[in-house]
Write a structure and sequence with these properties.
The chain is an alpha/beta fold. It folds into two domains: 121 residues, Rossmann fold, CATH 3.40.50; 111 residues, Arc Repressor Mutant, subunit A. The chain has nine helices and 14 strands. A five-stranded parallel β-sheet has the order 2-1-3-6-7, sandwiched between helices. Helix 4 packs parallel to helix 9.
């Protein structure tokens, strides 16, 4: 029997935790529901989880700080939740750690759709394609970096691996495969989110910002990922198929 994906839910309201757990369990997921970050990290240390669902507003804790620490420890998808009036916090959350945001109030169908999309994306990026699908190893070099699409690894010339979230990896893979192409935000959203999620353009902007911080020698003057005003983005660096 196929093992269920286990979802970690962090929310300090008992009723919300109970509701989220019920919705996810009904959709076929196993759930670990906790009220504090200490409990969350203890659960993570005890057993692997496929995705984390975190509330931005926690009593006595900074949700953004919690999410950033979780991202430091893990590359699993992080979906954050917040109220409609928290756009600034939502953008900060995406910039610092989150792969997606759910704006309260949301329906059970939207919750499950977002979770499924993130898990599908993470699964696609976790396992190499069969050799027949892409001719074997698919590696690209740019600057001091090597992006191995078969092993799903980005490595620097000094030997260190750069941890990328599923969304970051999907975006970088698409752009490196077609350097000098101008990508609209809608086109990049298709590669990073799929078609069954209601996301917004600024998701791409914050993913680009996060990637620049990780791969650019000088993120304030990017050499690789360039903004084309009014059009979108392009990968301007020289890319070599290895």
């Amino acid at each position: 029997m196929e093992e269920k994906h286990r979802i970690l839910v962090l929310d300090d309201e008992d009723e919300v935790r109970t509701l989220l757990s019920a919705l996810l369990e009904e959709a076929g997921y196993a759930v670990s529901a906790v009220a504090t970050s200490a409990e969350m990290f203890a659960r993570l240390a005890a057993a692997p989880h496929a995705l984390a669902l975190l509330d931005l507003k926690l009593r006595g804790e900074d949700g953004l700080t919690v999410a950033r620490e979780l991202r430091r420890r893990s590359t699993m998808p992080i979906v954050m939740m917040s109220g409609r009036g928290d756009e600034t916090d939502r953008v900060l959350g995406l910039e610092l750690a989150a792969d997606d945001f759910l704006v309260k109030p949301f329906s059970g169908r939207e919750l499950v759709a977002r979770v499924r999309a993130q898990l599908r994306r993470a699964t696609e990026l976790s396992y190499p394609k069969p050799p027949g699908d892409d001719g074997g190893s698919e590696r690209y070099g740019f600057g001091d970096w090597v992006l191995d699409l078969t092993r799903r690894v980005l490595t620097h010339a000094d030997g260190r691996a750069c941890a990328l979230t599923p969304g970051e990896f999907a975006l970088l893979s698409a752009m490196v495969r077609q350097p000098q192409r101008v990508w609209s935000r809608d086109q990049l959203l298709e590669h990073t989110r799929g078609f069954d999620c209601d996301v917004y353009d600024r998701t791409i902007d914050v993913l680009i910002l996060r990637l620049r911080r990780k791969i650019e020698p000088n993120p304030s003057q990017p050499a690789y990922i360039r903004t084309e005003r009014g059009l979108g983005y392009l990968f301007a660096g020289a890319v070599t198929r290895l």
